[in-house]
Design brief:
The protein has 18 helices and six strands. By secondary structure, it is an alpha/beta fold. Helix 10 runs antiparallel to helix 11, helix 13 runs parallel beside helix 15 and helix 14 packs antiparallel against helix 15. The protein starts with a strand and ends in a 6-residue tail after the last helix.
């Protein structure tokens, strides 16, 4: 049975309003298209899926008939001036529910909301399916290249720490050893290098960015339209002083996959590093619109916090950094930036406590490492960083 294989069954139109059929079928068709963009997925075509419309179904039987691991089904119900969309993902081998969620929206926005609903569903399912495949792979006595890939991706989705990244890198290396042509594992391995460089986990972050860029250029030779490869190449360029090129790469990735919320996040980072701090929040809001519970959202909140800090809106910055840590504490750099903002407004006790938690995650972090690895030469960006060094000192981060 193919990895991450799924059929999107036609969503049920509860209440039978024929005017809603167009919307319900549109959600089903769009989801079928968008889920097929998930790395490593195999999605049954809409023509086959629509043969089940209006029929009572048994997930296990459908799994056997269509040779798929997962069934996604759902319903749309209208009540007054609101409507509710329910969706659930079922494992066809066990018949158990892997995930379920619901969306409530004003009915007037129905068709306007279709793309947003589909994006949110696709992004949520991306993370849920990776986690489900990783759990399945853990039970496999002889994991194949894709099993190892999904286990590495699940680790990446948990945060950005040296331990998580080292373990993920090992899974991707094992995957590529079994299948050197596994493009998804190659892209994910490059993302590890991008993460190390982005989080200042090395004294010379550029060696990691160079390794990522070499790998991504290799991928794009074989798969020139790979959305995440373009996005990650954009992230590298943004952080190695080629900001406009990097933003253009991220925009290209969105043209290839409109649901790639992380690309909006990286564009926001590019605006911050080119000292256009006032523009950052808009890009992050777009990312959150597409994927409000994204596994990477903690980074996007940090980007806005940095932008607010850059224009001396320190108390606003604190709110964004605090939310970043609430979403995911497995990221030392979010701690250090939060501690900086707290220190700059005189909250020294909390600043030092947060900085200590960051140093527990990344004991090698120093002000010197942060200073020498400036990701750009924009004079306004560089001048604004000087305040951050002072905040880090006040928070007790070692000079190095």
């Amino acid at each position: 049975m193919p990895h991450l294989s799924i059929v999107v069954l036609p969503f049920a139109n509860i209440g039978g309003d024929p005017a809603q059929d167009y919307f319900v079928d549109g959600v089903t068709e769009s989801l079928t298209t968008d889920l097929s963009r998930i790395a490593g997925s195999f999605v049954i075509g809409r023509n086959t899926a629509f043969t089940f419309k209006g029929k009572a179904v048994d997930a296990r039987q459908i799994g056997r008939d269509l040779n798929v691991r997962y069934v996604l089904e759902g319903s749309v119900q209208r009540g007054g001036n609101r409507f509710r969309l329910n969706a659930q993902l079922t494992d066809t081998e066990t018949g158990s529910h892997v995930w379920a969620d619901r969306f409530d929206k004003p009915a007037a926005e129905l068709l306007d909301m279709q793309d947003e609903i589909v994006s949110r569903l696709a992004n949520t399912l991306n993370a849920e399916l990776i986690a489900a495949e990783a759990r399945r792979a853990e039970r496999s006595p002889r994991p194949d290249a894709m099993d190892l890939y999904f286990q590495g991706r699940a680790l990446q989705n948990r945060g950005v720490t040296r331990a998580l990244l080292t373990e993920a890198r090992d899974f991707f290396a094992r995957s590529l050893a079994l299948d050197p042509g596994n493009i998804e594992a190659a892209v994910a391995a490059a993302q590890v290098e991008v993460s190390v460089g982005s989080a200042f986990m090395a004294d010379d972050v550029n060696t990691h960015f160079q390794a990522a860029e070499t790998a991504l250029n290799g991928v794009l030779l074989h798969a020139p339209d790979h959305p995440r490869a373009h996005m990650l190449l954009g992230a590298v360029q943004i952080q190695t002083n080629r900001i406009e090129n990097g933003i253009a790469q991220c925009r290209r990735s969105l043209a290839l996959d409109r649901n790639l919320a992380d690309a909006h996040g990286f564009i926001g980072l590019g605006k911050y590093q080119s000292a256009r701090c006032e523009e950052v929040e808009g890009h992050i809001q777009e990312a959150l619109r597409l994927s409000p519970r994204d596994t990477r959202a903690f980074l996007w909140y940090m980007f806005v916090g940095l932008a607010k800090l850059g224009i001396k809106q320190d108390h606003e910055a604190i709110g964004w950094f605090r939310r970043s840590l609430e979403l995911n504490r497995n990221h030392a750099l979010s701690h250090f930036h939060f501690a900086t903002a707290l220190a700059l407004v005189g909250e020294l006790n909390e600043a030092r406590s947060i900085a200590e938690a960051g140093l527990a995650l990344d004991p090698g972090f120093t002000i010197r490492r942060y200073r020498i690895n400036a990701k750009g030469d924009n004079p306004v960006y560089l001048a604004r960083r000087q305040r951050y060094f002072e905040g880090l000192r006040l928070a007790g981060v070692p000079e190095g």
